[in-house]
From TrEMBL:
NCBIfam families: MTH1187 family thiamine-binding protein. InterPro entries: MTH1187/YkoF-like, Thiamine_BP, UPF0045_domain. It holds the Pfam family Thiamine_BP. This is DUF77-domain-containing protein. It comes from the Eukaryota. Belongs to the UPF0045 family. GO terms for cellular component: cytosol. Gene3D superfamilies: 3.30.70.930. Residues 12-103 form the Thiamine-binding protein domain.
Length: 110
């Protein structure tokens, strides 16, 4: 099984949830995660319920794992992350390509 490769490119949407913090607000922790993502070099966009990142399969999952590590290093003992990952092999399509296509279709309706 170890000889099965991962897809070369993927888009992942993830929502990282620190559990057991002293405040219901986790904006400071999310800001730390955003700094990490920005420095990682992967393409990304933050939205109100998470972040979408794209790159190689290994790099995308590495960045999500590193996000866990930086929060654990701050003393957050438990983190839950929901991840949705998509890949396709017929063409490379960025998350922006997907949004642009839908906007194009919506523009035709006006």
């Amino acid at each position: 099984m170890t000889s099965i490769p991962t897809p070369t490119h993927c888009v992942a949407d993830f929502c990282l949830i620190p559990i057991g913090t002293s405040s219901p607000s986790v904006s400071a922790q999310i800001a730390d995660v955003q700094r990490l993502i920005e420095s990682s070099g992967v393409k990304y966009v933050m939205h109100s319920a998470g972040t979408t990142i794209e790159g190689t399969w290994d790099r995308v999952l590495q960045v999500i794992g590193q996000a866990h590590t930086i929060l654990h290093q701050q003393g957050i003992v438990r983190i839950q992350t929901d991840i949705r990952v998509g890949s396709r092999i017929d063409k490379e399509q960025s998350f922006q390509d997907k949004v642009d296509k839908v906007r194009e279709l919506l523009g035709r309706e006006e």
